[in-house]
């Protein structure tokens, strides 16, 4: 995978300075200790409150620097990629932010973090600072483990600690509150691909048909490999694993769920994962949700994690309290989607259905051709566009054939109007709406149906802005409908469409459509997918 970086050694310092230049970091500053001391802190920490400090290896952004701000962390100590920060850097953060109220260190349960933060706490105490440490070990991937890893639940600990600090709680009370909260957390992760910590030549350990359940945040192997499945099934596996870890005493407890993006899952898929979770048995026990959002990531890992936290009044209040860091997504009730009634819409089938067996056969045959060519047209479109041309045409074909029993097949103009209505309801992309425009205008035309289709094409060209020679589906449609309008046979119409589609392969560049944004060298010798779809449709009808 290609990456944006200069050198691996400078990734962290360059990224932190870029973060501080952004709006998200304009209330923050850093200690002047690069490269060994990378501490991001509030510009004006309130030393009358307990200082809340966390940190660890970088590569988990927005954790930890992204959670520095009022209501969460006072400071974050950032190590190299996946490496704990050094002891002196942690001590520097404590000294820079801690007053008489003391300091709470929130530490993920990894050996390096425990050792470095633990020794830093001892040194700070020797310098007269009150320091307490809370270890977060929320991972349930390895049941019975005496050292569960600290993963996304760490961010919840930041929020609990930050809230208590802003309330002016003393260090002892704050420490007890966060420790109790940590005991109520549990996390499971699932990934389709592991991460690459900027190691050249590194290959994924997972095959195309594998996913991984119960993984950490440093690229280490998961607890088990599982078969690749649908999003719904994978979410069920993760949710069932999480629910099975709950103690019997928590059977009637309400929970908040954190849906954490581990790195590269697109937002549309993260939202889909939350919808899938809402249909699991565990969802009945979840009253609130945090996310979906990237909270504790693992560079470019293609995966997600679920974190549960048992709620009581104090924890709910802490999670709902406002916080300054933009990376904190807030908490919301996990409810049902709000739905309002559709407004009255025009009837898509304004004319009574009438039979025409021959025309019905033509429509069925045309649909078969478009569906059979779906994959081939998608592959062709993927070379110069977004790869969905075949699906657009096939989807429209399926919708029309599904409505065959409702079509006015005996009246061509009524039929064209109805097809336009179906396309406006169901067909996506520019092709769908352009054909809807063509059939709508053809249905209104006073001319016989052959000439009416040509009139519809003229209106399509006016609305779409393309004309013959612009390297679009017009290059196949225009000559085909010209032959049709003058009484040509179906084989002649198909031949005209084929010649038009073939002509697009020699056009230097497109002047309309998505291919207009593609360099000429990439479209040369590749037919326009829309024109090719028209040609294949008509050739299939002629052959049948």
UniProtKB/TrEMBL annotation:
Domain DhaK: 7-328
GO MF annotation, one: ATP binding
Entry protein name: Dihydroxyacetone kinase
GO biological process, one term: glycerol catabolic process
DhaL domain sequence ranges: 357-543
Organism: Komagataeibacter swingsii
InterPro entries the UniProt entry points to: DhaK_dom, DhaL_dom, DhaL_dom_sf, Dihydroxyacetone_Kinase
GO cellular component: cytosol
Keywords of the record: ATP-binding, Kinase, Nucleotide-binding, Transferase
A Pfam family of this chain: Dak2
UniProt lineage: Bacteria, Pseudomonadati, Pseudomonadota, Alphaproteobacteria, Acetobacterales
């Amino acid at each position: 995978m290609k990456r944006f970086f200069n050198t691996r050694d400078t990734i962290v310092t360059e990224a932190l300075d870029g973060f501080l230049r952004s709006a998200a970091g304009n209330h923050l500053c850093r200690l002047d200790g690069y490269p060994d001391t990378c501490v991001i802190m509030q510009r004006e920490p309130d030393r009358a409150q307990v200082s809340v400090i966390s940190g660890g290896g970088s590569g988990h952004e927005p954790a930890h620097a992204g959670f520095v701000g009022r209501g969460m962390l006072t400071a974050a100590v950032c190590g190299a990629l996946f490496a704990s920060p050094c002891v002196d850097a942690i001590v520097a953060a404590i000294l820079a932010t801690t007053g008489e109220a003391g300091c709470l260190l929130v530490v993920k349960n990894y050996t390096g973090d425990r050792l470095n933060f633990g020794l830093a706490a001892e040194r700070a105490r020797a310098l007269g600072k009150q320091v307490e440490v809370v270890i977060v070990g929320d991972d349930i991937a390895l049941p019975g483990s005496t050292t569960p890893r600290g993963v996304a639940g760490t961010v919840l600990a930041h929020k609990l600690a930050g809230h208590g600090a802003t309330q002016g709680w003393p260090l002892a009370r704050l420490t007890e509150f966060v420790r109790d909260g940590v005991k109520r957390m549990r996390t499971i992760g699932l990934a389709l691909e592991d991460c690459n910590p900027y190691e050249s030549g590194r290959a994924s350990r997972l095959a195309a048909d594998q996913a991984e359940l119960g993984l950490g945040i440093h690229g280490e192997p998961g607890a088990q490999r599982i078969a690749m499945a649908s999003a719904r099934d994978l979410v069920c596996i993760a949710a069932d694993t999480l629910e099975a870890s709950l103690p019997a005493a928590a059977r009637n407890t309400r929970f908040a769920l954190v849906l954490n993006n581990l790195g590269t899952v697109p937002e549309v898929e993260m939202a889909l994962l939350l919808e899938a979770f809402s249909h699991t048995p565990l969802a009945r026990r979840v009253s609130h949700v945090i996310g979906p959002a990237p909270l504790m990531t693992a560079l470019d890992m293609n995966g997600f994690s679920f974190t549960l936290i048992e709620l009581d009044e104090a924890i709910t209040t802490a999670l709902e309290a406002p916080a300054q860091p933009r990376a904190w997504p807030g908490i919301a009730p996990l409810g049902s989607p709000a739905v309002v009634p559709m407004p009255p819409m025009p009837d898509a089938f304004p004319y009574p259905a009438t039979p025409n067996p021959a025309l019905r056969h033509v429509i069925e045959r045309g649909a078969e051709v478009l569906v059979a060519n779906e994959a081939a047209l998608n592959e062709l479109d993927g070379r110069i566009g977004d790869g969905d041309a075949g699906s657009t045409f096939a989807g429209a074909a399926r919708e029309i054939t599904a409505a065959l029993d409702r079509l006015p097949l005996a009246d061509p103009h009524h039929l064209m109007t109805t097809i336009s209505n179906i396309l406006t309801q169901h067909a996506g992309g520019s092709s769908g709406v352009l054909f809807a425009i063509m059939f709508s205008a053809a249905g209104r035309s006073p001319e016989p149906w052959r000439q009416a289709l040509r009139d519809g094409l003229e209106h399509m060209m006016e609305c779409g802005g393309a004309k013959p020679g612009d390297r679009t589906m017009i290059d196949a449609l225009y000559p085909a409908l010209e032959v049709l309008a003058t009484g040509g046979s179906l084989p002649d119409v198909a031949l005209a469409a084929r010649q038009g589609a073939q002509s697009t392969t020699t056009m230097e560049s497109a002047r309309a459509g998505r291919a207009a944004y593609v360099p000429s060298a990439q479209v040369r010798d590749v037919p326009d997918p829309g024109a090719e779809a028209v040609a294949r449709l008509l050739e299939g009808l002629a052959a049948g």
